[in-house]
Structures are given as C-alpha cells and as structure tokens.
Amino acid sequence: MYQALYRKWRPQTFSDVSGQETVTTALKNELKTGRLSHAYLFTGCRGTGKTTCAKILAKAVNCLHPVDGDPCNECEICRGINAGSVLDVTEIDAASNNGVDSIRELRDEVAYTPVSGRYRVYIIDEVHMLSAGAFNALLKTLEEPPAHVIFVLATTEVHKLPATILSRCQRFDFGRIRPEEIAARIRYVAAEEGLTVTDEAALLLARMADGALRDALSLLDQCASVAKEIDRETVASVTGMAGQETLAALTDCVARQDAPAALVAVDELYRSAKDMERLCAEWVGYLRNLMILHSMPDPGALVIVSPEELARMRQQASGLGLATILHMMEVLQGALDRLRGGVSRRVEMEMAVIRLCDPRLDDSKAALLHRLDNLEVAVKAGVPTAPTPAQPVAPAVTAPAAQPEPIPAPAGEPEPIPTPEAPPPLPEGEVPFAPWVQVLEHLSTANPPLWAFLQETTALQNGESLILCISSPLLIEVLKEGGNKQSLVEAIQTVTGRTYSMKLRRSQKVQKAEIDPLSQLLTAGRDAGVGVNEN
Fold first, then answer.
1. Beta-bridge partners for 171
2. pLDDT tens-digit readout, 242-254
3. What is the C-alpha to C-alpha distance for residues 349 and 279, in angstroms, rounded to an integer?
4. pLDDT tens for residues 48-62?
5. What ranges in 358-435 are assigned the alpha helix state H?
6. 325 near 436, Cβ under 8 Å?
C-alpha cells in the first residue's frame, strides 16, 4: 500500500527534525543528563514537528542503546515503537476522547508498570479539546504521576489551556520553519523518490506551506502524481495558484486605473477554475512583498523570491507609493472577509478591482492618503498646479443658441425688473476674510495637495478667530495628515503677519467643476504630456 510522503519521511531522530534546533537541542541535553520532566507541553502551528518530536522522545527514553540523546532505531524497543506494537507508548486523540470518562480510564492505567520499557509515555494530541471536567480530572495525575510515567501534551492553541495545566508542564514552542529549510527538505525527499524539482518550484512550495513542512510534503506528493519533473508551472496548475506574473499584471492594471483590463484578467482566472478567495489572498501576499521592498532597502529573509522576481518587484514597488500599496491591501483584506460569506465570489472580486481602479469610489482614510500620494507624485513630476499670468486659460467659444423673441409688454404697463437674490446674512461679528485669496496663492506653491482641497472653501473672520466653511468631510482628515494644518497656519502668518485660532464649519457644497480637484489636477498633467502615476 502506498504511504504518503509526509508519513514515509517523518524524522526518526532529533537530528533529522528540520527547523526546530532549539527544541531538539534542549530535549537531547535532558536525555543525556537524565534530567527528564514528568510532563511536557509542545505547542506551535500545524506541521512543525510536535507529534514527531513526542514520538522520538518516547523512543529515546526507552531505547536500549541511545546515541547522543537520539534513539538508535535498531533495538527491539525502538523497532516495536515504530511498528506500534509496544504497549508502553500510548497516543490519545483529545478531539475524540475529550470526556471525563476517558481521562479517568487513563488515570487508572498509569498505576501499572511498563511492560517492556522503562517508562510509560502518554502522548495527548490536540489537548486543548479536552472538556473542563476532563482537565480537572487530569490535574492531580499530571502534577504527581508515578515515577515510570511521562506525559507529552501537544496543541496548536495553547491559549485555550487552563493555567493550572500550563504550570504543571515544561513548555516547548515550535516556530514556523523557514522557507529555505523547507525547500532544502523538499529537494532531498524528491531526490530520494526519483523526482526532479526545480529550485523555483521548491521555493514556491515552501512559500505556500507557510512554515509547515508537512503541508509542503503533501503538496509535493500531489505534484508528483501529475509529473515526475516538477517546475513552477506544474506547481501553479496543480495547486490552482494565479502565479506571480498574473499578480504583477493585475497590480499594473490598478496602477494604470485600467479597470477593463483588470476585469478581463479576473474573468480569465475565473473561467480557468481559479478560486477567487485564494486569488485575493495571493494578491495580498504579493502586495505585502511590495510593501516590504518599499519600506526596507535590504529585505533579507522577509521576501523569499528568486533574484529575477526580486528585481522585477523592486521596479514595480518603486513606481507605487506606499500609501497606494497600503490602500490596495486594505481594500483586498475587506474583500477577503466578504468573499468567505458572500453570495457570488466572482462579483465580490470584480467589485474590489473596480474600487481599486477608481479611488474616488472609496471614501476611507486609506483611499484619501492614496490620492494625496498620487498628488505628491504628480507635483514632483512637474504637473502645473495653477494657471499663471503667462498662461491664461481661455474660455471655450461656443455658438450662441437661438433665443426666442421677447414678447412685448402691453402698452401702458412698465416691464418688471427682476431683483437679484440676496445672499443670506452673516452671523453678527463675522466678516469675509479678505486675504484668503492670497493665502490660497501661497499654498499653491507651498503645499499643492492642500491647495487643491481648499478650492471649495471660504473663510470668515470674527475677531481673532478664522472660520473655514467647508463642504467636504474629507477635508477634516486632510488637515490631520502630514502637517497640513501647520502648513495652513504658516501660510496665514506669512500673508497677514498675524496668528488666528482655527475653527471649522460645515457649509453647502459649491459646484465649481464637474470633477473633483484631484481628478482635475491629474487631467491637467495628462494634457501637459507629463507621466503621472494615477493608481
């Protein structure tokens, strides 16, 4: 009968365990010095070697000829434990034996002496699944077991264990195994099995395993059923991954605000049976690498990719602002939560793509920072921020529309003269702030992004107070970010030579243009022939 690779290649000694040197070294030293504990707690994520080390420990304490703390795997007891015929080693699944009665039976068994070895070893896997009553029944036995009994508890959720259990055990934490160590183990197992695995494929399998060696060997087993020569394309097709090239192309579509191309790419992935939730998670992981590359000059082991991919990702990260990358990650994280409970995963993914390609559809703080980041990039690229006297903006000339002839008023009656609508009176003590135009002119060069947002505002003066009448709630967030409020205060001081206390007042929105100031500024950059990053 065929045996899965993760079972066939399970380590048989502490020296064979990958990525847990701290744990294995401590256990070997205890075995060599004879300072064994009566209860051990192995905790960590799945597939990192907890149950494997528990079985090796059970062999090592009973081995007739141990070698430097490792079991010999050749004596009668070691072979019996490997075959499962030694009754002194008992493995209990707490998920299916979590009641009080099961623990009471175990408590009665520990009184019997070992049959063939020196110790009776009880391995309780997923111990956090025990009920409260079962934990209470285990407490006294776990604290003072017979001299010939050793307990090994294993769990992936140590926070669910009672403090009374934790205080009675010697705890060892199993960390996630590094991708390069998983890739090395994959190449070794593949060579022993007569498989050919490229370095890129081994690294891709290691990244997908997320620190769990057992998961990596299971994926290798799945790929081996398709081809004996495993490369990057084989792994992507078997596991249903989108691939780095596809994720890079989707990111470029968002950077260009090319929603049609992005939707076509999502449709192709959907028709090729790619899972939308997995696509979203992979895209978040790809953007995470761009975030690290944008934030660190030397990412080191934080970004595990091939040198060719690293160079391409560096170039892509340099063309995106950090605020843009964070906004994309936030939108996709929200979409990922909704994908798990939504009616149509395809529609949810398409909504996220459209929202990414048009930041104006998102009124979150991250989207606002993303748009401000685009403005800063545009200003650095030389986009004109305001018309200068040397470049007057000529009004568009349109043909006059045909007007109906006025109907003459009856003789003897004077024609009524329409009266203009009077503006609403200002509150007592408030007058228009006359230097506001000069303040805006100063900000057009000192802080162009803030100048763009202040185009639809008016200013009133009431003694030593300056009241900004705003129509957009986003302006409140703008004044909180990046020292924008300080820039405004300094501009007022420069123009007037005085310091005012600032107040904000909501007012009805003034329709000055059909598009918002950010889009108008970016459109001016395109008309001027300047390349602007509009993602």
1. 41
2. 778 888 999 999 8
3. 9
4. 999 999 999 999 999
5. 365-380
6. no
Round to the nearest angstrom and report the end-to-end CA distance of the chain.
Answer: 55
**pLDDT band for position 150 (cuts 50, 70, 90):** very high
Alpha helices in 130-275 (DSSP H): 132-143, 163-166, 179-192, 199-209, 213-224, 232-239, 244-255, 259-271
Contact 460, 433 (CB under 8 A): yes
Strands laid side by side in the 458-462 sheet: 431-432, 458-462, 465-470, 501-506
CB 375 within 8 A of CB 449: yes
For residue 151, the SS3 value is strand
- Residue 195 DSSP code: -
Range in 185-199, 261-275, 515-529 with the lowest mean pLDDT? 515-529
Print burial letters for 382-419: b (CB count within 10 Å at least 16), e (below 16).
ebbbbeeeeeeeeeeeeeeeeeeeeeeeeeeeeeeeee
**Are the C-beta atoms of 26 and 37 separated by less than 8 Å?**
no
- Adjacent-strand bridge partners of 432: 460
How far apart, in whole angstroms, are the C-alpha atoms of residue 521 and residue 374?
10
33 CA to centre of own chain: 45
pLDDT of residue 390: 38
Q: Where are the alpha helices (DSSP H) in 319-435?
A: 322-339, 345-357, 365-380
| Residue 90 to residues 81, 86, 114, 280, Cα–Cα distance (Å) | 10, 9, 12, 43
Can you read off the two tokens belonging to residue 433? 């702030």
- Which helix (H) or strand (E) is 502 found in, with range? strand 501-506
Angle at which helix 365-380 crosses helix 517-527, to 10 degrees, equals 30
Percent of the chain with pLDDT over 90: 21
How would you class 84 by CB atoms within 10 Å of its CB: exposed for 0-12, middle for 13-18, buried for 19 or more?
A: exposed
C-alpha–C-alpha distance, residues 311 and 299, integer Å: 12
Is 284 in contact with 336 (CB distance < 8 Å)? yes
Residue 214 has pLDDT above 50, yes or no: yes
Side-by-side strand order, sheet with 89-93? 89-93, 120-125, 149-155, 39-44, 170-174
Report pTM.
0.62
DSSP state of 67: B
